[in-house]
Amino acid sequence: MRKQIAAANWKMNLTLGQAEKLLDEVLAIDWTPKAHQEVVFAVPAPYLYPALTKLRATGRTQVHISSQNAYSEKSGAYTGETSAEMLQSIGVTHVILGHSERREYFGETDHVLAKKLDIALAHGLTPIFCCGEPLTVREAGTQNAFVAKQIEHSLFHLDDAQLRKVVIAYEPIWAIGTGKTATSAQAQEMHAFLRSVLAKKYGATADHISILYGGSVKAANAAEIFACPDVDGGLVGGASLIAKEFEAIIRALK
């Protein structure tokens, strides 16, 4: 079975004290993951090492710490940036790349993200690669072509072995903070389409790629969404900042 993943994206939230309290609460949950289940915490950069220290003390091997970003170059005069090599050196195992907020607010392009994927993979990190369409694209009915382009431009230079190390997260941007709601059927439809795009290029390898849903997953809808055959967990924003909410999401994994 493909890996089923509950990934928490804390974004730019919480003080150190609040972050430590939240992480302690979630790590204390009495939950024994199945062999194919994982939990990932994408915490703000200042909290990466404290989070790693806490995690190591628990001995949990199916819980991981992720960066929310990494730069596209190995090192150099890039003030304010964090390299994949730096993340690897402290024990970070995952990195979110191409989140809709990075694309919109910081102008990250498919070409830049392809470079980020390469350097992340070269340093042993598992990329959580985000794709998804805004409201204007969904309303025009061109969402399939839009996300297919994102996948093709950023991932299709990878070989089979490299692709197997990538996790994909689909974000229906139009259903986040717009008052519109994406149904589980819409989530399944897009996830199945994404897998078909991968299959045309990589064949059976597509069946091994975990595709997470990133459209306002919460305790109330996680089980229904995760039950979809092509949904392999979620990339969770606001609900991951509440321990009980994220616990319910974790327990909803297939």
From TrEMBL:
Keywords assigned: Cytoplasm, Gluconeogenesis, Glycolysis, Isomerase
Catalysed conversion reaction: D-glyceraldehyde 3-phosphate = dihydroxyacetone phosphate
Compartment(s) where it occurs, according to its Swiss-Prot or TrEMBL record? Cytoplasm
InterPro entries under this entry?
Aldolase_TIM (IPR013785), TIM_sf (IPR035990), TrioseP_Isoase_bac/euk (IPR022896), Triosephosphate_isomerase (IPR000652), Triosephosphate_isomerase_AS (IPR020861)
- Entry keyword Transferase: no
Query: What are its GO biological-process terms?
Result: gluconeogenesis; glyceraldehyde-3-phosphate biosynthetic process; glycerol catabolic process; glycolytic process
Q: Which enzyme class?
A: isomerase
Which molecular function terms from Gene Ontology are attached?
triose-phosphate isomerase activity
Q: Which residues bind substrate?
A: N9, W10, K11, G177, S216, G237, G238
Q: Say which family it is in.
A: Belongs to the triosephosphate isomerase family.
- Main role? Involved in the gluconeogenesis. Catalyzes stereospecifically the conversion of dihydroxyacetone phosphate (DHAP) to D-glyceraldehyde-3-phosphate (G3P).
- Entry protein name: Triosephosphate isomerase
